[in-house]
């Protein structure tokens, strides 16, 4: 019995996807879903560019989970998965200018404008608690 690489990767990344979806983050899997969610968006949205890397597992996803326990949080919660849903990720990254592609990364948008961004280099060098606190500060500033 042989398994295709794509099926293997789907099975391997499912728990990584579920770390965010089980706390209320909606996956955007196609460019159309990204456009539908972010074009003409009103209010605030957190967009997490998820990844299979260790810093996504150790710092990014736990930091997001910590921040989402705070009473003030964005109106909308989204994620795209770099390396898996490539077209959706590329589309989401169009909204993050002037920042170059980075995964994992975390964006906060308000009324369609990027107001806070945490690129990979600010994920891999900080703890989940530091990332969570950074996001909480951004939520307090932009989501009230």
From TrEMBL:
Coiled-coil residue windows: none
Gene3D superfamilies: 6.10.250.2150, Glutaredoxin
Signal peptide region: none
A Pfam family per the record: Disulph_isomer
PANTHER family associated with the record: BACILLIREDOXIN BRXA (PTHR40052:SF2), UPF0403 PROTEIN YQIW-RELATED (PTHR40052)
Membership in a protein family: Belongs to the bacilliredoxin family.
Protein name in UniProt: Putative bacilliredoxin, YphP/YqiW family
Species this protein is from: Paenibacillus tianmuensis
